[in-house]
Amino acid sequence: MKKLILAGLSSVVVLMGALAGCNFSQEDETTTVELAEVTRSIFYAPLYVAMEQGFFEEENLNIELTTTWGGDKTMTSLLSDGADVALVGAETSIYVNAQEPADPIINFAMLTQTDGTFLMAKEETDSFSWDDLKGTTFLGQRKGGMPQMTGEYVLKQNNIDPAEDLNLIQNIDFANIASAYSSGTGEYVQLFEPQATLFEQEGLGQIVASFGEESGALPYTVFMAKEGFVHGDDDVAERFTRAIYKAQQWVYEASPEEIASTIAPYFDDTPEDVIADSAVRYRDQESYAKTPVLPEKAWDNLQNIMEEAGELPEPSDYDQFVDTELAEKVMEE
After folding, report:
1. What are phi and psi of 28, to 5 degrees?
2. Helices 296-308 & 90-97, crossing angle to 10 degrees?
3. Each residue of 169-221: pLDDT tens digit?
4. 3-state secondary structure of 119
5. 16 pLDDT exceeds 80?
6. For 103, which DSSP code?
7. Looking at the domain covering 117-215, what would its CATH class be?
């Protein structure tokens, strides 16, 4: 009997050792994170840097990146568990949380902190004034989206009534705005990089103003996830945030050529000199957030712009829907 008991105990010890070994190996296992980005843009350079420089790998994370082309599709992917994390404008979380989902959407790491569009004029000028837009045709962004809301907010801040002072076109799909402009529609257009720089190089217009500089700090593009993911028992969201913070620091220290060569695989059809120029333009105006922390002042500015545009469903509580603990923790390390 004693031998049976000892044998049983030995089996238990062996089993416990095996389980302990499994737990230890799981800590070192790579966790896959499904990430949905709203579009592919040089505006998101720090994300691609984190992937190419191995910052996610250092955190034992494997990022499976999908471009979902549109805020509605991105949020649908997140809500239906097609993605663990979404990279999209913070306004989309406000729209969703206003519907009181069972698992709220939490903004946990900011990637860009200004609008990313530029005003391009078809005619070159040495002395641009916002008054120059009055009486012209302005090719803006899709109604209800953050670029359009910010664009109209900036126009109003410069004493231009979008409804009265110009011919505002907003019925062209995002993917077709650049081609519509190059085909002759509008004297002015609101464009992201690298399209603005490409058009300038091709002699199709001149960048005369930055909506990012004019609108102030905004949580323009944010990593967000369901509350269960952000506040779960594991530390995946924390490790994700740490990798992003490393990339944010890298982008502000690297040369334009280093940035361009690093993220070039994500932009096959764009010359590296254009990638470099576009990235530096964003960096110089500090569009890339320097830390993942989403400040309350920027959150309030976002809601003010949405309210001005008539698109704010209801005030969204910063303390409830923004998590800064993870970002603050990785910055203190």
Report:
1. -95, 0
2. 70
3. 998 988 899 999 999 999 999 999 999 999 999 999 999 999 999 999 999 99
4. strand
5. no
6. S
7. alpha beta
